[in-house]
Amino acid sequence: MADKIESIAILGGTGDLGGGLARQWSRAGFKILIGSRTLEKGQAAAAALLAEFPDLNVTGHENLDAATQADLVVLTVPFAHQLSTLETVKQGLSGKILIDVTVPLVPPKVGTVQLPEKGSAAVMAQELLGADVQVVSAFQNVGAVHLQEDHKIECDVLVTGNKRAAREIVIELVEAVGLRGWHAGPLANAAAAEAMTSVLISINRHHGIDGAGIVISGEAKG
Amino acid sequence: MADKIESIAILGGTGDLGGGLARQWSRAGFKILIGSRTLEKGQAAAAALLAEFPDLNVTGHENLDAATQADLVVLTVPFAHQLSTLETVKQGLSGKILIDVTVPLVPPKVGTVQLPEKGSAAVMAQELLGADVQVVSAFQNVGAVHLQEDHKIECDVLVTGNKRAAREIVIELVEAVGLRGWHAGPLANAAAAEAMTSVLISINRHHGIDGAGIVISGEAKG
After folding, report:
1. Angle at CA of residue B83, ends B79 and B87, nearest 5°
2. CA distance A113 to A199
3. What pTM was estimated for this model as a whole?
4. Is the peptide bond before B104 cis (omega within 30 degrees of 0)?
5. 8 Å CB contact between B85 and B75
């Protein structure tokens, strides 16, 4: 693992959430490698961001190329493509942190929790990748719309992973996009954050809210 | 189901969370039946509350007696006793709402999500009780300490259940104790709220917080 993260690959960086993270992190000074299934789509997403902010360090790639070149890799593809994408890029992840943003939504009932086989998509990713990759789960509850806009985002990020040092690096990246990150326990706890997304979708529907999020409350012990 | 809830049985009402709910609801004007495995323990818990607030309508009972007499029943026993307690009181629940507060914590690793067989303790309760009882899941993320004290509680309550009308009644009871309740979707979504408790325990530990809770953020659509 690189001591200092300077470059971040965003696999699925052409989507709403990945694109939002690319936008925020590149503006925070990171080198961003937008990965896609084809080089052309990755380059088009990079070009769109550069058209708006010409000074950013953003390039487009195929997923494996992006993963191999970057210090840290973020996965933001739909659940249906999670494991197949990881198979494609596995050789580029060795020794790195993978931030898995996958939410195991199963259409059409995306407002209903439908737990995956292992209870958590992030746990499935860790099992596929093995101990050589440190999977950290984060960002499941942040509406993509919030990362596209430039207003204050009122949504905390639950950061789960089996190693504290890896969670700490991810929390720094969370703070770099203006959000608050929390040490939320081992990777098994990603089940809670992943399932919470269906709860937030239900709350949006029933209460007429656009982009409900969660905020952790509580006072530090005196 | 009673159109208007006037009396509430709290099974496990001698514990911290059940005792806190008894304290808050009785002071809000509800008749409270504190249930326990023995009549003596139920009566002792009622007597303790009455010693502090003599004018309340609080009585102590065996669990089945409490469940049978009340308009609505709340289950606040440890996970290990959830299904056995429900077997004991099942005949008293017919046609009623059961608020299941069970959190499937498995000691000693209570800060790690360990999903139960069906993903959710509340779903297990509904399967045991059948369609004649409306199980609604709530209050998993509220620290008992907050209900014992009389300060403003900064923690929202996710209310899940398969019928909107039943959720609505429970949300009114949530509001009666000074909390904000949310329609959080079908009972399957209780998995998220139940698992979140282990996340909050992890956050308490890692961040030195006493009683972390969750608050839903988001603005109503204009």
Report:
1. 150
2. 7
3. 0.95
4. no
5. yes
Of B182, B177, B139, B184, the residue nearest B160 (C-alpha)? B184
State the smallest CA–CA distance between residue B109 and chain A in angstroms: 11
- The amino acid that residue B220 corresponds to is A
Q: How distant is the Cα of B24 from the closest Cα of chain A, in angstroms?
A: 20
Q: For residue A210, give the chain B residue with the closest CA.
A: B221
CB–CB of B217 and A155 under 8 A?
A: yes
Contact A61, A37 (CB under 8 A): no
Q: Please say if the pLDDT value at position A1 is more than 90.
A: no
ipTM attached to this prediction: 0.94
Instruction: Give contacts of B112 with chain A, Cβ < 8 Å.
Output: 185-186, 188-189
Write the residue in B189, B195, B221 that is nearest to A202 by C-beta. Answer: B189
Instruction: With a cut of 90, say whether residue B211 has pLDDT above it.
Output: no
3-state DSSP of A33-56? EEEECCHHHHHHHHHHHHHHCCCC
- Max CA-CA distance within chain A? 55
Residue A77: pLDDT over 90: yes
**Ramachandran sector of residue B84 (left: φ over 0; alpha: ψ -120 to 50; beta: rest):** alpha
| Nearest-angstrom CA–CA distance, B213 and B173 | 19
Chain B environment of A185 (Cβ under 8 Å): 111-113, 198-199, 201-203, 206
Nearest CA in chain A to B198: A189
Tokens of B218: 């988001």
Q: Which amino acid is at B162?
A: N
Going along B12-57, which residue ranges are E strands?
A: 31-36
pLDDT higher than threshold 90 for residue A173: yes
Give the per-residue pLDDT at B100. 98
Q: pLDDT tens-digit profile of B108-118? A: 999 999 999 89
Residues of B in contact with A151 (CB under 8 A): none
Give the chain B residue whose CA is nearest to the CA of A113: B189
Dmax of chain B from CA atoms? 55
- Mark yes or no for CB contact A213/B218 under 8 Å: yes
* Closest CA in chain B for residue A219: B209
* pLDDT band of A148, cuts 50, 70, 90: confident
DSSP notation for A77-99: S-GGGHHHHHHHHGGG-TTSEEE
